[in-house]
Amino acid sequence: MGLQPKLLTAGGIAELLSVRASAISNWRKRHRDFPRPREAAGQELFDAAEVGRWLAGRRVPRTALRRDEAEGATYQHRFLRGVGRPAPVVERGPVAPGRAPALLAHAEPLRVASGLGVDFPLGLLRLRVADPAGWGALVAAARGGAGARVRGLLVDARLPGADVEAGGALPAAVLAAVLAAVLAADAAEEPARVADALLSRPGRDAGHRTPPLARCLVELVDPRPGETVHDPCCGDGRLLVAVAGHLAPESPGAGALSGRAADEVSSRVCAALLGIRGMSADLRAHGDGFRCELFDVVVAHPPVTLAPPGGEGPPLGEPSARGAGLAWVQHALRELAPGGRAALLVPGSTASGQAGRDVAVRRALVEAGVVECVVALPGRSSRAVVWVLRAPGAGPVDPEVLFVDAAGGGEPGGRVVDDAVVDRVVGEHRRRAERGGRRFAGQEGFSRSAARAEIARNDFRLAPAGYVARPAAASAPLEHLLAEVDALRAELSGLRGAVAAREAEGERAFAAALAATGGVPRAEVPLGRIAEVAAGPGTMARGDGVPVVLPRNIGGGRVDRGAHDLAPARGDRYALRAGDVVCARTGTLGRGRSGGTGRYGVVGADQDGWLLGPGCLRLRPGTGVVPGYLAHFLNSPEGAAGLERLLSGGAVPHVTTRAMGELVVRLPPTAAQTTIAAALDAADARLALHRRVEDAERELRELTFAAPTHAR
């Protein structure tokens, strides 16, 4: 390398490489060939030439590259520049020129011939990285046209779809497509970049996140080696890849990564994307996956058209349709261990919507001191914001919230989230964290901290533009109105697509319900004969313990609506079980004229052991009664009318356990109950989406007037 003799401390090496000192310590522990230091004046000093040679070939993770570094740069390149020596130039070019397109070109014929999705070519790339010997045998068989041998090796490797028509020969068209894909994968020079290209091609946009945006979320929470990191909606795994890359310079493979995938295909894609890079994660695609597990760090870009996993309602209350992302904010907070951090990318309406329910949720979050930072990001048709949360834990709660307006206060012309935007946002967040107790002034037109009292005066709006003073050259107000119109149109397009999918699902569920109930007998029995009816206590002492279900916590066919009181756990008749149906004893108990859902909810598996509170009734279905069906019946017009005849007199309607037990329930066979409940669940989901469409259309109507009549 031609370096002149030079001695460096471990701290000096870390500074040159832009890594923490702990990274150098980890390299020394894990690599026996790391240069040995010599001692001088009580200090350990390393030979710069030896360190430079050792760093050769150790690539800088994509998420840790500097703006002046191309992908493929090594720590040796960075070290040489730091000590004043020229480093080899790494050209920044397209993905594997001349070779990556080969696998991309074969992906679509493979799908047409065999029905195999993108997870199959990704699986090939993962196999090539993870099992070189097995890959060599597969390539040799493919080059020889040995279809049966190729088939057997793919089945042994458990590639998705490889066992289609097990026991027989692959059809000629499928075999040709598979062999071509294997050879194309073998020709790809950089599997990780080819995988990115596969996921970024047209038709695969839904789960794709640009690297700068992933890096922004990850660096705002700064995961450390040994911490558990979770993505509750991991999509194709880009955020988990960014987390692993963030940790790699200090401790490769450190930290436990996990993610919840929407389905098995998404899980395989995510596993392949990580495996191609030599990484792994605990991925789960069924049920609620990670109930009751807590994590040090949560990162997410959730699909706000879908409810968070688990089925339980948000702990601080249901947001409005326009503020649906607030349910995911609460879900992330619920999954954090004490003192944990979370970063979520959600629509801007979560920070600014003025529906009463949204304001109440934001107020609860701010007053709990869990909102650390809100960042508005640039984008032509997006009003996305990043919420940075910190769960209560050791140490005092910060009395202020940091607001960063990268959408309106960024560099001139900055309309996308690029590395420059990310660097500035992350730098500002770190600068505020390192202020040492002093008040943070921020940067004019870009950032500012605001106390809770000011946020309260602002009706708990958390949009950064409301706190960050804009410079004189800020965009004209009309631009913002037009951007809001674009964002609403994009949101409506996504909602309509979700409605169409839900309608198809509802039609199938309705047809199944009709088929299951056609010609079957329906019993009509008093509720007291098929369920145990019990009332909650008159009073209950509060204190540490388990959640208490009160009337305010029941609605929409489920429990866990709003904040909970706590009481000491008890094993008596007031302890709830999964599958219990609960309701309020007073007020509007059935379906009103407006069609609103009555106050009956089913206790979920994670609520087993919670306590029935004052003012509530508990119905414990017996054998042959499906809890979901019973709740839907009680919420139906028939159930509401039957109960209304049994209510006690007085200004406030009131139901006794005796009256509830006398309510006549229409009860088909168990299988029919299950299909009817599924059909009604689908209808409720569809109704929720339509309400969100209505809210968005109403806001678009207001903007349609405001934009053309604006003075400027």
From TrEMBL:
InterPro entries: DNA_methylase_A-5, Restrct_endonuc_typeI_TRD_sf, SAM-dependent_MTases_sf, Type-I_RE_MTase_Subunit. It comes from the Bacteria. Residues 212-470 form the DNA methylase adenine-specific domain. The keyword ATP-binding does not apply. Keywords: DNA-binding, Methyltransferase, Restriction system, Transferase. One of its GO terms (biological process) is DNA restriction-modification system. One of its GO terms (molecular function) is DNA binding. Pfam families: N6_Mtase (PF02384). This is N-6 DNA methylase. It comes from Actinosynnema mirum (strain ATCC 29888 / DSM 43827 / JCM 3225 / NBRC 14064 / NCIMB 13271 / NRRL B-12336 / IMRU 3971 / 101).
